[in-house]
Design brief:
alpha+beta, 35% helix, binds zinc ion, three-stranded antiparallel sheet, 4 helices, 142 residues, 5 strands
Length: 142
């Protein structure tokens, strides 16, 4: 009986677009930004890149996204395998194998991302400095 009432309450909250965790106003995947940040930290740690600018950029994206396509995910270096140069001359482009798969959707039942492994290769780009990363990211990540 409790489960039925819980499900009704859950559906009611989802219709009202309230956070499923704290019932504050939510946006994408029915969580508020505060709960999304907790989820981010649970998945990636509080400071995944160990660089304030990059970590703040990632957290900002994580809170602002309204579609899974807009998400920029932190991939720890140790999850990448078979890193290979594409451009030998400039040494700036590489590809690597990443077996986790990219995020394709939000799974409301598991309260986590759904992943899809279409191709397990990812493109890596080496930036000289953070300014280049943030200057180029607008076009590079589209
Ligand atoms: Zn919340």
């Amino acid at each position: 009986m409790d489960n039925i009432n819980d499900m009704k309450s859950l559906k009611h909250q989802m219709k009202k677009k309230l956070c499923l965790i704290c019932r504050f106003k939510s946006n994408f995947f029915n969580w508020c930004n505060k709960c999304k940040l907790k989820h981010f930290q649970f998945n990636y740690g509080e400071f995944p890149s160990e660089n304030n600018e990059i970590d703040n950029f990632l957290k900002d994206i994580y809170c602002k996204i309204e579609k899974s396509k807009e998400l920029i995910e932190w991939i720890p270096y140790n999850e990448l395998e078979k890193i290979t140069f594409i451009d030998e001359e400039s040494s700036k482009l590489y590809y690597a194998s990443w077996s986790n798969g990219y995020i394709c959707d939000w799974n409301e039942n598991k309260l986590n991302w759904s992943r899809k492994i279409k191709e397990n290769q990812v493109l890596l780009k080496n930036f000289e400095n953070l300014e280049d990363l943030f200057k180029q990211n607008v076009s590079f990540f589209k």
